[in-house]
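Before relying on records like the one below, remember that each one covers exactly one chain. Contacts with other chains, cofactors or solvent are not represented anywhere in the record.
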Amino acid sequence: MATLLSHPQQRPPLLRQAIKIRRRRVRDPQDPPPQMAPEIRPPSHHFSPEQRALLYEDALYTVLHRLGQPEPNHVTEASELLRYLQEAFHVEPEEHQQMLQRVRELEKPIFCLKATVKQAKGILGKDVSGFSDPYCLLGIEQGVGVPGGSPGSRQRQKAVVRHTIPEEET
């Protein structure tokens, strides 16, 4: 009795292809499997001296103008990071100092914070009518406070406009 698999002409195309692949592997076990797509190589990391200098200056700028508080297990001192950059880029000390001075003379970055107030309670109005738009103010103080400090230690400030209408008009 003949089955579908015993006659090569009646086998489905995918099964015929799988059998051919198996036969090739049995014949050539040491040969690597054929590659369907050409190998993609990563881009070269060999920069021109100008590109390397620009990249080094960008890294210096980033270290000098770090934002935020580093994690406890990360490097906290800028001097350590600068020394690491100098070693990683294989920069001579004189060249490092020149580039560092050049970067320090650049304009400092402007940091912006976008905040969305989800809820505000017990806030007095900021104008004479008692209403204000926006309904609250946020303040940012640079270099003030200790991480984990108590919020109750700060004195609450009110920015309410009162008594702005002259006495004779009321």
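Residues 54 and 144 are 34 Å apart (CA to CA).
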